[in-house]
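Name: 3-hydroxyacyl-[acyl-carrier-protein] dehydratase FabZ
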Amino acid sequence: MTTENKTMDICEIKAYLPHRYPLLLVDRVISFEENKSITAIKNVTVNEEFFNGHFPHKPVMPGVLMVEALAQTAALLSFKTMGVKPDENSVVYFVGIDNTRFKRPVGPGDQLKMDVEILRVSRGIWKYKATASVDGQVAVETELMCTIRNAADASKPAGQ
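Structure predicted for 3-hydroxyacyl-[acyl-carrier-protein] dehydratase FabZ:
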């Protein structure tokens, strides 16, 4: 009986996500279960480009980037669930971001732990419950809806 590795290092993450510095926001996958959930981390360092302007006197990770990190984590779960690696023509788009609440700031030295759970998949639309926390304290919680498209079909409405 073989046990499949349920973690991903940065090299494997880069094989599944097209994002690169400064927008690759997942450093490691701690665990995942196809069709169910994933847990990943983002190590937040003072060297992040966004801290130069947000804010120089009190560095805070922008909320939209925390949501983006959760979306990248969700994309990894979707690709692993489908058992496919995206090609250069695959794109993942937001379809919706709902019920988002920011609970605490995230700054240099924090480790953002991202937990994403698939709620449903219907007509090519994936819906997830996503939470990011630092030291057990929720930083952001949200519901995300995304779709995976071929770049050539990207201008068509979602669900077609």
